[in-house]
What does this fold into?
Amino acid sequence: MGTMLVTGGAGFIGSNFVRMVRERDLAEVVVLDTLTYAGNLANLDGCDAEFVRGSVTDAALVDELVGGCDTVVHFAAESHNDNSLRDPSPFVTTNVVGTFTLLEAVRRHGTRLHHISTDEVFGDLPVEGEEKFTETTPYNPSSPYSATKAGSDHLVRAWVRSFGVNATISNCSNNYGPYQHIEKFIPRQITNILDGRPAKLYGTGAQVRDWIHVDDHNDAVLAILERGRAGETYNIGAGLEKTSNKQVIEMICEIMGGSFEHVADRPGHDQRYAMDAAKLTAELGWAPRYTAGLRDGLEKTIAWYRDNEAWWRGAKEGVEKRYAESGQ
Ligand code: NAD
Ligand code: DAU
It folds into this structure.
């Protein structure tokens, strides 16, 4: 794949992706990341990749970097729903304007782009029922975060159709695994219990997420880069057993020996996400590797956070202080 520009490569999914690409020696990698609170250079320790600190909204820098690479994989985003409810502004700037800036650069240079998106663009499904999102489900985002991701997907499609840009899109469900910021559900609970605090469940905890291990997500991204059809969108989801937030938190408490409490619910809280990944499987032959169930993946993830306290400790107090301000 020549030289690959990975935006947001110092974040959770992006850094796991860079590690995978370098370990398999698939491409030379240049990471572009502005290092927000969610970006961490330590995530790239031991990865043989060039790092450039800068924003995807910086048109001159983006043009220069895109001009020097063969492929762009666009992970950079403001990614946390709760933050988008507190202050949507950086979400519009990075997710919408940043994607626009990148699209203009790949259009000028004729560079291949893969855009990383989310299942949240489709809105949500009733908790009861088995219906899943497909690639043709109409967009119906709920939060400022998901609305800006939906906007970025629309921009990519428009640039494909109007300007012939060579791009693909993937929409993935909730990831978990190593290097995930501790503001997110699973690492927040693991680190709460490690700290002797109760885990925190929003509302009743009846909501359902379609959990996927980050390596399964990144395997799928590589399959799309290698064999995906230009202009196409692919849904990514592992299709594990339907598990509510309450069941996930109970599993974590059982494995670690902790307890949980109910806290204020998220305004506009999406009820259920579920992805139909049949197109990805049928066309590209992708299948998840983490098939032993969520419990197995959680045990490995818990072990990682236990073994890497130095990685998360510095962020813990600030994260919990911000949540406490919203009664969460
Ligand atoms: P993250 O918040 O852990 O990482 C985001 C990275 O982007 C950080 O390193 C941050 O510094 C960087 N960044 C932010 N603004 C930037 C800017 N203006 N310029 C350059 N870099 C910038 O996020 P994540 O969970 O790794 O998500 C990565 C991508 O995957 C996002 O596009 C997100 O929408 C998408 N996604 C995430 C999930 C999930 O479960 N986490 C699921 C589906 C899709
Ligand atoms: O579905 C894909 C999306 O998954 C990605 O696009 C987002 O970037 C990613 O952050 C994630 O969004 P969610 O809002 O689903 O994830 P989060 O980890 O914030 O919350 C997961 C569920 O757990 C959600 O129903 C809210 C709930 N929750 C969250 C936290 C932080 C709790 O019950 N307690 C908590 O402390």
Notes: The pocket of nicotinamide-adenine-dinucleotide (ligand 1) is lined by residues 7-8, 10-14, 32-36, 38-39, 55-57, 75-79, 94, 98, 116, 118, 149, 172, 174-175, 181 (CB under 6 Å). The first strand starts at residue 3 and ends at 7. The mean pLDDT is 98. The longest helix spans residues 89-109.
